[in-house]
């Protein structure tokens, strides 16, 4: 008997670990990928209930007159305060979880991926069948991010790393680990995980 829904697979990893790069390889294999961080930004700008919740908690000035999100206000008033970050995450993460579920139900592939920097940290692994962690040494990750993002400093990258669960913990919690280091090819590792997930979906 075929399953009614695709398996739900998380794809996580610390900043600069190579999640998006690995996601692109899965996409080439025909696996649909939900990019949670991009989608969260879209939902914050477009999902009426979420917008209402953000305005109710952080004031109407969270949005500009033209209805777009007031990024500088939120950066100053919300993202600088850990308690407020918790509050906004408590609004955004359930909205993303719901949106992901609806999206996944409309896919016809054997499994789908949810690419997100925070999966174990938010507990969203509970709603997933499997989680893949992309693992890479901190030094390599910092160098890659600094090369990719001109606007970021080493201190900013380290601050983000401090807010994420350490790689070793994620490797222990994950069902699959893809090592993104210079001496290991990514494509054969992705193919191996893909084959196992296809087998599990049958
Ligand atoms: P973020 O958490 O910031 O979104 P990420 O985990 O999605 O990062 P990527 O954007 O995939 O990471 O990779 C970070 C940078 O490192 C990118 O510029 C990417 O092209 C590069 N990169 C990733 N893997 C490799 C690799 N194996 N060899 C060389 N460069 C790589």
From TrEMBL:
SUPFAM superfamilies: P-loop containing nucleoside triphosphate hydrolases (SSF52540). It catalyses: 3'-dephospho-CoA + ATP = ADP + CoA + H(+). GO terms for molecular function: ATP binding; dephospho-CoA kinase activity. It is an enzyme of class 2 (transferase). GO terms for biological process: coenzyme A biosynthetic process. It comes from the Bacteria. Pfam families: CoaE. Its EC number is 2.7.1.24. The keyword Kinase applies. Pathway: Cofactor biosynthesis; coenzyme A biosynthesis; CoA from (R)-pantothenate: step 5/5. Gene3D superfamilies: P-loop containing nucleotide triphosphate hydrolases (3.40.50.300). ATP binds at residues 16-21. It is found in: Cytoplasm. GO terms for cellular component: cytoplasm. Keywords: ATP-binding, Coenzyme A biosynthesis, Cytoplasm, Kinase, Nucleotide-binding, Transferase. Catalyzes the phosphorylation of the 3'-hydroxyl group of dephosphocoenzyme A to form coenzyme A. Belongs to the CoaE family. This is Dephospho-CoA kinase. It comes from Algoriphagus iocasae.
